[in-house]
Sequence to fold (117 residues):
Amino acid sequence: MQGFRILVLVLLIISTGAAYAYTIQTADKGAEQIELFGGKSGPVPFPHRLHQEVLPDCAVCHELFPQEAGAIEKLKASGDLKKKQIMNKHCTKCHKKLKKEGQKTGPTTCKSCHIKK
Ligand code: HEC
Ligand code: HEC
Ligand code: HEC
Fold:
């Protein structure tokens, strides 16, 4: 029984730890507009400030990667994020969900996110 309780506690710590893997600060809002690396499909212009205005919480994104320039590329390089993981499981997923609900949303097609230079 004691062992079971400890196991539950450990699982609880792991699961809450995973949801907030990075400390979230709100004082430094960072750049208004950011250009993300998009590989062969070309760069992805990302309106950072607009998302801060329409989304309730910095953690929506920053629980997945730290509040640092180049954070996504760094995590992809170390293998902690898969290529296209943020794109598929985050950006596009949210935009599609809002589109389905008939709400104001962002792009959902390759060429409306990636711009060829
Ligand atoms: C919709 C997703 C999203 C939300 C919400 C969001 N950010 Fe970001 N933020 C990003 C992305 C993407 C980057 C760039 C990461 C990279 O370069 O790999 C970033 C980078 C940053 C940086 C690093 C400096 C810079 O400008 O590159 C800071 C600081 C930052 N964010 C603060 C915040 C704060 C404070 C909030 C909440 C008020 C917030 N962010 C909300 C996606 C978001
Ligand atoms: C909502 C915006 C958005 C849409 C739609 C989108 N992408 Fe992306 N894409 C991104 C972002 C942001 C990244 C960088 C983060 C990542 O790799 O998850 C990226 C990364 C990529 C990469 C580079 C991965 C690497 O690290 O080498 C390729 C290639 C790519 N996308 C192709 C596509 C294709 C093909 C489509 C259409 C089927 C598509 N993207 C649709 C935003 C988008
Ligand atoms: C949790 C939801 C959510 C996530 C995650 C998210 N977005 Fe959005 N995005 C929105 C909403 C909502 C809008 C529409 C904002 C508006 O026009 O009021 C939007 C709009 C946009 C626009 C269009 C801006 C314009 O001027 O029309 C782009 C480009 C965009 N998002 C790119 C991205 C990229 C790239 C990512 C991932 C790094 C991302 N978004 C992550 C919700 C999200």
Remarks:
- The chain has six helices and two strands.
- The longest strand covers residues 33-36.
- Residues 2-113 form a domain with the Cytochrome C3 fold (CATH 3.90.10.10).
- Confidence is low (pLDDT under 50) at residues 12-19.
